[in-house]
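Archive entry: two folds, one per protein. Generate the first.
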Amino acid sequence: MHILGSGKITITASLERKEYIPGEVIPVEVLIVNDANVPVEPRVTLYQQQLFACNQVHRTLESCLTSEPYSTTEAVPPNSSATALIKVPLATNLVVSLRSPLITVKYFVRVCLDLPHAMDLVVNVPFIVTTRRARAASAAVNNGAVTVVQHPQPQQHHPNHPTSPHHHHQQPQPHPLNRPIETVGIVPPPAPYHSVSCQQQQPPTAPARNNRINNL
């Protein structure tokens, strides 16, 4: 039996890039610095988060997309550090990441360390699910092959109102339901690694007592 004593465990999770296409495999790089006296093993799961908004009512639905967590073949021994590459496949029928006034769809990879006699250490790394066309357009914009030009909207004047420079015509605001859905497909070039790290200090615990059984 291992008794978790004083020590510190640090975990860092990173992705190769920020956007992925359904059906691809996400390589998750996990760095673990184990300064405690128990072996730890990382577990990786995939989550989808949906946010619904209607007036002042908000609801969040979080669902796990993997039946079983992905893990390494060997645990990290005490007082050591190790780097593991865990591959998580994406389903081919995933909905792309999107953001609108009514619904938002997000994805993230959750890396968890199951610590005995302590709270689990959890790291969430977000990413974007996009399409091949959006990725190609994003690459063309980033490489300078395509230039995005924004043209100013022409001002519309009512025929019954004067067009003097001192007259300001207020354009009607579109209804929130008529706003176009913003698909998160074209993204700026991310950093070489998209990483999130955290650490947890383990408090010292008293050693286990030996119970003596006297036979009468």
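Generate the second and append.
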Amino acid sequence: MAVEKAIDRIRPKDLQRLRALVKAMRAPISDEADQKQHEENNREFHLILLRAADNRRLLETYDALNANIKIARIHAADADWTSRLDQEQDEHEAIVKALEQKRTAQAVKAMRKHILRAMGSLIEVIEGKSANRM
């Protein structure tokens, strides 16, 4: 996982920025502008981790797939997506804490939990849309 490589390479200023992003993403979302800002903060959060991992191929793949944009659009189409924000931010907080403490196993566990929960949420939304079309 990228976080394994990032843990030894991440700079203090990157950790500070991650902390600031986590704080910003905890702000309430009340309109489309807030939602777009949240999406951009989330994208920056993950890009900082990918850059710190120093894996050019993974970073290029992430950018080429526009993964964050597609995920954000799917979530935005789900009226209940904001109900997952606290959990998302708790996961981000756990990732940053593990990075700050240089605890690789804890960072991997936190990132894996975040990815699997996000994946499960996306599948629920997609399957729900498919079921509604039938």
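Annotation attached to the second fold: The radius of gyration is 15 Å. Residues 104-133 form the longest helix (30 residues).
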